[in-house]
Amino acid sequence: MEKRYSQFSEHELRQEITHLNDKAKKAEQMGMVNELAVYERKIVMAKSYLLNPDDFQPGESYELNDGEGTIFKISYMNGIFAWGHRQGNENREEEAFPIALLVNKMN
Q1: Per-residue pLDDT tens over the stretch 40-59
Q2: Which of 9, 17, 39, 41 is least enclosed, having the fewest CB within 10 Å?
Q3: C-alpha closest to that of 44 among 82, 71, 70
Q4: pTM of the model as a whole
Q5: Domains of the chain
């Protein structure tokens, strides 16, 4: 049975990220777009477990690392996921993002 990222030590997480980066590079070189996307998401999840969820508070806004500069405001935290709304989409359903995708605190 495989371990979950939540059970990894910091050292194991860093090794896993390195391993996944190598796999992602190979997938990109071979033009395997779907496989690359899977590895990129796994990397984000592993990186999220290296961060402290207590550093992210409801009411705070962050830029999403989505390449578009989208602003995301946290409503509440659940583990390594921040739940909330993108700026301009406050009337839509809440979304969740791994905390590794939240960069550049706006408040």
Answers
A1: 999 999 999 999 999 999 99
A2: 9
A3: 82
A4: 0.89
A5: 5-48 (1.10.287.880), 53-105 (2.30.30.340)
